[in-house]
């Protein structure tokens, strides 16, 4: 079925969801969107997206439903239950949950979808607001091969989809991603403080490191923000904490000790506790400045 023939219901048009839904509409898909805050969905009308009054209205005629909500409990609230998406979706359609949710939540949703004769993929993303805007997201997909093949063209409009394994493994890959991101943010933050205290220009240190083994997306995109104290949220720290806590809880189920990640999780927990949860996750440097009794530029 071509893009022009596929109808998409898009649930959740926030920082990430809005550009993702826009890309699908521009690619020729017929998109109906719903968001808890209607204004965030209304802005997409100029891209050809139809705004729905309820999530059920957005999905009743959809061949593929994409969910981009904030957490597992919110996804369950919208997807499951007598008035949930699964009850409103037509048989043989596909539900693609691109939110970051616990592995067991994705597995439970997959089982519920099967009972409704609906295909299911968990497909969390990485790349932040920039990746969503540029349609360059890393998309980690869990689910059966057939369902993935049916939706891979649609997912490719938003980024690079890779099937990891059965339902739930997309979320497992995202947790691995989030541990790497969180731990790298912490290390880059410490490097900025060390460069500053030692008398080097941290911007020049970053320039010198580009292309070497220390190079990374965090070094390239977040170190300048740390230097400039520019923490307008692309990926809010509170959601980073949600993901690292989920990863550590899962590791405990596997009887794994993750000492580095546990330490970094504690830093994010303190950052949020100090009122910085709405800031970008690169704001972790603020917590390190507090611990070192350094000014934060407030």
Q: Give the radius of gyration.
A: 20 Å
Number of domains: 2
CATH classification class of the largest domain: Alpha Beta
What is the terminal separation in angstroms?
54 Å
* Proportion in helices: 40-55%
Task: Report on the architecture of this protein.
By secondary structure, the chain is of the alpha/beta class. It has two domains: 163 residues, Rossmann fold; 120 residues, N-(1-d-carboxylethyl)-l-norvaline Dehydrogenase, domain 2 (Orthogonal Bundle), CATH 1.10.1040. The chain is globular. It starts with 6 loop residues before the first strand and ends in a 7-residue tail after the last helix.
Helix-strand blueprint:
Layout: E1 7-11, H1 17-26, E2 30-34, H2 38-42, E3 50-51, H3 55-59, E4 64-67, H4 72-79, H5 85-88, E5 94-97, H6 103-115, E6 119-122, E7 125-126, H7 128-134, E8 137-142, H8 145-156, E9 159-165, H9 169-198, H10 202-209, H11 217-228, H12 237-253, H13 259-276, H14 284-291
Parallel strand pairs: 1-2, 1-4, 2-3, 4-5, 5-6, 8-9
Antiparallel strand pairs: 7-8
Helix pairs in contact: 1-7, 9-11, 9-12, 9-13, 9-14, 12-13, 13-14
């Amino acid at each position: 079925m071509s893009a022009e023939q596929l109808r998409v219901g898009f649930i959740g048009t926030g920082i990430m969801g809005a550009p993702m839904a826009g890309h699908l509409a521009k690619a020729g898909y017929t998109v109906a969107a719903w968001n808890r805050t209607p204004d965030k969905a209304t802005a997409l009308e100029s891209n050809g997206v139809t705004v729905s009054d309820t999530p059920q209205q957005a999905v009743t005629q959809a061949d593929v439903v994409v969910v981009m909500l904030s957490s597992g409990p919110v996804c369950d609230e919208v997807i499951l239950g007598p008035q949930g998406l699964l009850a409103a979706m037509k048989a043989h359609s596909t539900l693609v949950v691109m939110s970051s949710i616990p592995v067991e939540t994705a597995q439970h949703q997959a089982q519920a979808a099967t009972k409704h004769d609906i295909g299911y993929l968990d497909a969390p993303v990485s790349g932040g607001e920039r990746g969503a805007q540029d349609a360059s997201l890393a998309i980690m997909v869990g689910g059966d091969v057939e369902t993935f093949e049916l939706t891979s063209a649609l997912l490719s409009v938003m980024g690079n989809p890779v099937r990891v394994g059965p339902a739930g493994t997309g979320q497992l890959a995202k947790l691995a991603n989030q541990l790497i991101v969180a731990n790298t943010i912490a290390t880059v933050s410490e490097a900025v403080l060390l460069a500053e205290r030692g008398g080097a220009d941290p911007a020049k240190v970053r320039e010198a490191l580009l292309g070497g083994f220390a190079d990374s997306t965090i070094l390239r995109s977040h170190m300048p923000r740390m230097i400039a104290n520019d923490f307008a949220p692309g990926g809010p720290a509170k959601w980073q904490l949600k993901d690292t806590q989920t990863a550590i809880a899962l590791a405990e189920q596997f009887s794994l000790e993750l000492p580095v990640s546990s330490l970094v999780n504690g830093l994010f927990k303190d950052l949020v506790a100090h009122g910085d949860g709405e800031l970008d996750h690169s704001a972790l440097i603020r917590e390190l400045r507090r611990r070192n009794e350094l000014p934060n530029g407030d």
